[in-house]
Amino acid sequence: MKKVILLPISLMMLLATVFVACEKDSEDVCERFDTPTTCSIDATYCANDSYGYYLYNDKKYTCTDDDCEDAINQILQDAECVVASTNSLKSATINDTKIFMQDVAKRVMAEARAAAGCN
Q1: What is the secondary structure of 38-85 as a DSSP string?
Q2: Cα 48 to Cα 40: distance, rounded to the nearest angstrom
Q3: Mind listing the pLDDT tens digit for each residue in 19-48?
Q4: DSSP code of residue 31
Q5: Distances (CA, A) of 33 to 23, 53, 84
């Protein structure tokens, strides 16, 4: 009787693991882009199932949060999209650039998770 009960439970646990698990050694999915704003940034965003990063001028900017805010801000400073004298961002252009870069990150991360078998 125990075997009859344990077998279906074991099979259900195995199937749950298969559907939830991601590939451990998933490859990075990358997309090169050029921001369509006056603050032009030619960069690449790469991601796998667990993290993402930007490549800009041969430098890697790792995303430390879901919206990559810190990485994007650093790229904007390195691309000299920040006004040096006041250190304030050019509002409309910078916001458009941030939104564009965040959209690229979300799209590529979704592709990377799908490629790794993650849901």
Answers
A1: SS--EEEEEE-SS-EEEEETTEEEE--STT-HHHHHHHHHHTT-EETT
A2: 26
A3: 445 555 668 899 999 988 778 899 999 998
A4: E
A5: 27, 13, 25
Instruction: Give the containing element (helix H, strand E) for 105.
Output: helix 91-115
Question: What's the rounded Cα separation, in Å, for the pair 74 and 94?
Answer: 12
Q: Cβ distance 25 to 112 under 8 Å?
A: no
d(CA 61, CA 118): 24
Strand 82-83 relative to strand 88-89, pairing: antiparallel
**Calpha distance 10→5 (Å, rounded):** 9
Give the predicted TM-score (pTM) of the model.
0.70
